[in-house]
Structure formats: C-alpha cells, structure tokens
Design brief:
This protein is α/β, with parallel strands linked by helices and about 290 residues long. It is about 50% helix and about 10% strand.
Amino acid sequence: MSGPKSVVITGASTGIGYAAADYLAAKGWRVFAGVRKDADAQRLSEMLGEAVTPVMIDVTDMESCRAAGETVRAALDGAALSGLVNNAGVAVAGPLLHLPVEEMTTQLDINVTGQLRVTQVFAPLLGAVRDHAGPKGRIVNISSVAGFNAAPLVTPYSCSKFALEAFTQGLRRELMLYGIDVVAINPGPIATPIWDKAEQMDPAQYEHTDFAPAVARILAYMLKRGRDGLEPEVVAEAIFRALTDAKPKLNTVLTPEPFTQWLLGVLPGRMTDKMISGRLGLTPDKLNP
C-alpha cells in the first residue's frame, strides 16, 4: 500500500520532538508523536492538526511501547513505517562521587535502554522482517555533542550519549541485514525545556561536598547555554534531511559553537582536562585555599 511517508517520534511533547513533528507534518508526513500525558496529546492534536497523531509512549515501560506499536500498526493498515526518531531523553547532573546511584540508573534507562525498547517494537514496521513488502524505513537517534566529550558534573548525561553513539553504530551494522539505515543527530546547546529542568535540580544535596562551588557554576552555565542555544527547528530540519537524503551523514553535528566543538576534538586530552577543570574550579588550589 502506498501513501504519505510516516514517522514515529518519541518525546514529542516539547522541544526537538515537538518541532520535528510540526516540521515533518508540514512536509506532508504522517506523524505519530509519542507523549506520556493525556494533556500533551490533546495539546498536540489542537496545535498541530490531523497530520499528527499523538501516541502514548513511556520509553521506560515495555508494555507501553508495545501498545504504541500496535496503535501505529493498526493506523498504518498494512503500510510500512518510513522512519523512527528516538528523541525522548532527560539530562541528569551531579558529581559522580556523590550522585545517587538511582539517578544514574534513571538516566541510562530513559536515554539508552528506552531507545532499545522503542526500536525493538518499531523495527518490524520499518522492514526488519523477512516478509516485509515496500520500501525500508530509517532510524534517526537524537544524540548530542556530549556523546563525544564528557563534561564534569554532567557525566551521567554524557554516559548516556556515549552509549547511544555505540548503540547507533552497532544497530546500523546489524540492520544492514535488512537494508535499514541508522544515523545520529548530535546537537549542541538547543533552546529546549530540557535545560530549564536543570533549575529543578537541588544543588543543596551537594552543598556539604567539595564539589558545591563547581555544581553552582555548571548549573548556571547549563542554563545560559541552553537559553542561548539554537532553535529546535534547526534540529527538526536536520532530522528531515537524515530521513530523506539518499546517503545521510552518520553524525550530523549542530552547535552554535562550532569552533569550540572542533577545538575539543583536536586538543590533547590533558590540555582539555586542564581547561575545563580550571573553568569550573576543579583544581587542588580550590580545595585548600
């Protein structure tokens, strides 16, 4: 069966996911927008119109993912799914020596294992089955420049994005069996609510540690970078290209600081360590002033 191209986007209630849903719908795609709350589903329906179908998806719950898969399968009525955009994610911050272990578990469950759950459910609709008829779909994982370089005190987030890079690379090589391509988008600071949520982190839990001053600095830095970041529509356009280009880039880096990103990639590691630790006050002289 033929018809408009179709895509599933997780984490579509705000930010990059919302912008991608809006952009792809405007390009004529049928969009299944993953949300976790009924209120968000209603808001998306009202704001984005009939081309966007909200679907309840909690990426931490396999049954929720399977139910979403059945909803999409029924709606497609025999047609193939053209794309899957694994966008859902959170950002956890805190010094590793004092970070509650359950926060790291949550970070990895949402940003890594959650992508696995969603991919396992939707891969057959993309063509990862022997008897698939029609064109093969494509998977786009929303990673980060943090997947190339780990910032202190935001290491849990970087861990998840480093892992997502490995997930993307390994999955791409496995799905060559079915002719399904898998690529990543690597944004730098983007003006989305994920950074505003940094305000919700309570630095008081670290106030009696040696990292307290650095935690305050990194939170202020995260908020400023996010609010000064690129608009999410820039990422939405890159997602469209990743889904439609005949040979998309394996990693599309999007950042308002391209020189800084390049510099971090070419400087010797020890030099980069000194620069970053010095900026955040993570040096022995700050420990014993």
